[in-house]
Amino acid sequence: MFSTKRTRPAAARASRFLALALCAHLYLSPAGAAAPSATYADPANPALKKGAMVLAPKRAALVVIDPQNDFMDPKGRAWPVVGEAVTEQKLIPHLHQLFAAAKASGMVVAISPHHYYHWDHQWKVQGPLEVFQHDIGIFDRKGPYTLEGFEGSGADFLPEFKQYILDGQTIIASPHKLYGPQVNDLSFQLRKQHVDQVIIVGMLSNMCVESHVRDFLEQGFEVAVVRDAIAAPKLPEGDGNLSALINFRYMANGLWTTDETVKMMKR
Predict the structure, then answer these.
(1) Does the pTM of the predicted model rise above 0.70?
(2) In angstroms, how far is CA 205 from the centroid of its own chain?
(3) Which domains does the chain have, with CATH numbers?
């Protein structure tokens, strides 16, 4: 599997990272805590009507955010804080289902990846998650015009998904740098395919996924989120999945399960 070698002094950083992961586990996994299905269940008496989006595969795209080793492989650098959610959500098998169904239906499939180059580590303005990501060296690449060291690295795509991503048909957008697609070419590529509906899956639920949702909505796309095909960190600051689901109930045109989405793709 990919190397975990870091380019900065490793001992203090690894110690702090493991302490953060342990703290998150103790904070969010107390004895008697509610099961994830109960935690993420919709309210019994909602005040808002659910989105009425009807999938039209010929003008829709499956958008997969950050299907990369550092998030989705147990040896990935972010696994200590995202692994619990990835496992609970059954993210990997759900993404398999969605990739396969989208390909079978002839839908556009697009990837919005996250890559960092050495100059990105010199940013003078950073938020907390940016500091964290740069500190552990997540999604690092040698540069945009070389694949040296990329194959099998944390920035590479999860091997199980390469059959779909590298089939010569999938759109691989330029990388997003923070959370949303504003600085990559994803929206441009989708418009060029006459896409005006997007189904969004991937990571992180409350950061990149939510930022993509908000930007697509502002651009006039019809947006659905697959609620059990997203995952996020669980930290003392809060459960990212729960935070995202609350906002998606307010905003998304559709909030579906994997099984519901696959059935719609087949129709």
Answers:
(1) yes
(2) 6
(3) 54-266 (3.40.50.850)
